[in-house]
Amino acid sequence: MSKAAIGRKLGLHQATVRKLVNARCADDVVAKSLQRAHVVDPYVGYLHRRWNEGVKNAAQLCREIQQLGYPGGELAVPRHLRRYRTGRGHAPTVGPKPLSIREVTSWIMTHPEHLRDEDADKLHRPRERDAELDRLTGHVRKFAAMMTGRHGDRLEDGMADAEQDTLVPLASFARNLRRDLNAVRNGLTLPYSSGAVEGNVNRLKMLKRQMFGRAGLDLLRKRVPLAR
User: Fold this and answer.
1) In angstroms, rounded to a whole number, what is the distance separating the alpha carbons of residues 117 and 173?
2) Residue 187's Cα: distance from chain center in Å?
3) How remote is the C-alpha of 99 from its chain's centroid?
4) Is the pTM of this model over 0.70?
5) Mean of pLDDT over the chain
6) Residue 27: per-residue pLDDT
7) How far apart are CA 108 and CA 102, in angstroms?
8) CA nearest 48: which of 71, 27, 64?
9) What is the model's pLDDT at position 138?
10) Mean pLDDT of 164-175
11) Whether the predicted pLDDT of 155 surpasses 80
12) Mean predicted confidence (pLDDT) in 182-192
């Protein structure tokens, strides 16, 4: 049976069948669908405002946001506005995009001197509203200063402050450091690093993966000294 015949039996459009047949896996189809669904997101505020002003022509709205830099096709715009044609008709006003966990985590983990003024201001606002987030940011930056400046002499005070805080995960982290306190203190004080050893281990793992199912130990012994 041909692809078109299969499509007619399933009630699917030929383009849909072609998309499914040519996809390498199901994730490709899902990823493309999500990409199309979110391509309108940066322009939702503008679309909702124009919709509430009485502009209901999706083609016209698409042309307007294309002038603002919209990179998608025309179908995504009516697909987004369809809910307001069949629903209550009034598009909700879109407020500022909420901060994501990934963004806030990135700002906390970045050295304050390397943080852009705009991002520092965005982090300052939730720190003002949430005392626990503010304390967590302070603890993270203290430990970061120990690691980058090799201040192992500050470790005891840092752990004590974390253990006394009401943030349970942070206190648990500090208590676990005490299980191997000497090693942690030496790691924050001495100039030695296991990076070279770990780099060689990763290199060996890469060589093994490249040869998996293709060759044996004899070839691996010859490749290891040559892969530098």
Assistant:
1) 30
2) 29
3) 12
4) no
5) 80
6) 46
7) 10
8) 64
9) 94
10) 91
11) yes
12) 90
Q: If DSSP states are collapsed to H, E and C, what string results for 151-209? A: CHHHHHHHHHHHHHCCCHHHHHHHHHHHHHHHHHHHHCCCCCCCHHHHHHHHHHHHHHH
Taking alpha carbons only, the member of 115, 167, 119, 116 closest to residue 139 is: 167
Q: What are the tokens at 135? A: 């304390």
* Three-class DSSP labels, the chain: CCHHHHHHHHCCCHHHHHHHHHCCCHHHHHHHHHHHHHCCHHHHHHHHHHHHCCCCCHHHHHHHHHHCCCCCCCCHHHHHHHHHHHCCCCCCCCCCCCCCHHHHHHHHHCCHHHCCHHHHHHHHHHHHHCHHHHHHHHHHHHHHHHHHHCCHHHHHHHHHHHHHCCCHHHHHHHHHHHHHHHHHHHHCCCCCCCHHHHHHHHHHHHHHHHHCCCCCHHHHHHHHHHCC
The structure tokens 């307007």 sit at: 64
Residue 17 pLDDT class (50, 70, 90 cuts)? low
- The number of residues making up the chain comes to 228
